[in-house]
Amino acid sequence: MTQMPMPATEPELPLRYPFEPGPWGTPPLVVHWARRNHPVCPVVLPSGTQAWMLTRKDDIAKVFADRRFSRALAFDGAPRMAGDDFTSVPGSVFNIDPPDHTRVRQVIAPYYTRTGVQRHRPMIEDHAKTLLDKMASGLNPADLVETYADPLPPLVTCDSLKIPTKLRAKFMKNFKVQTNLAVTPEKVAAATKQITAFTGEVVAARREDGDRDDPIGALITAHEQKMISEDEVHGTASYLCVTGVEALVSPLLTGPLTLLRHPKQLRECMKEPELWPKAVEELLRYHHNGVLGLPRIALEDVELHGTLIRNGDAVCATMLGATWDEAHYPNPAKFDIHRTTDGTATFGAGPHFCIGAAFARLFLQIACQALFTRFPTLRLALAESRIPWREDLIFIRPSSLPVTW
Ligand code: HEM
Questions:
Q1: What is the Cα–Cα distance from 312 to 314, expressed in whole angstroms?
Q2: Atom 20, ligand 1: residue with shortest CA distance
Q3: Ligand 1 centroid to 167 CA: how many Å?
Q4: Top-level CATH class of 15-404?
Q5: For 290-300, what is each residue's pLDDT tens digit?
Q6: Which of 187, 243, 321, 360 is the most buried (most CB within 10 A)?
């Protein structure tokens, strides 16, 4: 049994987020400490707001399903991570509570079922192949961030949402700011405004093209049928654009890196390709990549583990806390693709459970398998200890990942 790593000295409360990540982008040691000693732990967010941090899998599942905790934070002065990010956009499926949430979510849900996402398999394979061919004919060593992990998710997201070709160049510009923890509130708010304007252009163009068989098309149809409001079309379309970028860039870096660090398990996947879904599941358990999720607020006083969470208090959860919870995952620090437990807790719980979970799994299975099949001799081009990390993002990841073959 590997010992769960703990901080060398007792952390001071309240904790201050962002935390220093554990080795190789694994959970910050302070998360393990809080799970053991302070299951409802005070933490100050980059915005200066104080929140309660949950780290145990059972607590997160319970609170996320509890209607006394609200996601409806699109009001001025609501608790924020760094500034007025996508949690401030009215009408987004992410920012509304049931029953409105259920009404909006059901419009796009059919496109994200396990069978629904399979229609994207050939498209993801094609984009992966094109990028990998380009990488093969370019410089060796190459940076996996530039050649593969950064460009693939936006290509795939634009296709799956049928973003008009003329608007694709604008697509990436402001999304990175949204998930950065080290930018000023003014910058975050400006980026949110630009994304909202961008989504407005997308929805206007999509209204004209008449094609309705995709999530944005379905939102437009639902609005025509008076099922959802104009804000709900725009807010939800904009959130789908946001989630389809950085949330997939990070695991496409931490995933291959972790496999390169566990060559025996990588060889097993290469020999038995049916192991790829299990490998991706374990990668998703091992690296959520986002350390602390976005806030909810308590709508009344709630006591948890003897701590009083007051009406109006912010509560955040760390899914990495859940997927490394020893009560559910024996020996969580061990990367083991043969685990029988899955990584579902990485996608949250309750009504806001990640709608893109099947899409993310499919994307990562295809992208990881394609990478190692195209470059069977792939290895790191610098010492592991010299890999630079970006710790200022919600989705921590290497800032560059030089590889050779
Ligand atoms: C590995 C990649 C991903 C991870 C780990 C992840 C994780 C999560 C988590 C933890 C939540 C719940 C947040 C909360 O309740 O506070 C969530 C919500 C959501 N995710 Fe993902 N996500 C990923 C990729 C995606 C992708 C690719 C999409 C695009 C389709 C997506 C779309 C969404 C949406 C729309 C919600 C909000 C659902 C709702 O409010 O009902 N996610 N995600």
A1: 7
A2: 354
A3: 24
A4: mainly alpha
A5: 889 999 999 99
A6: 321
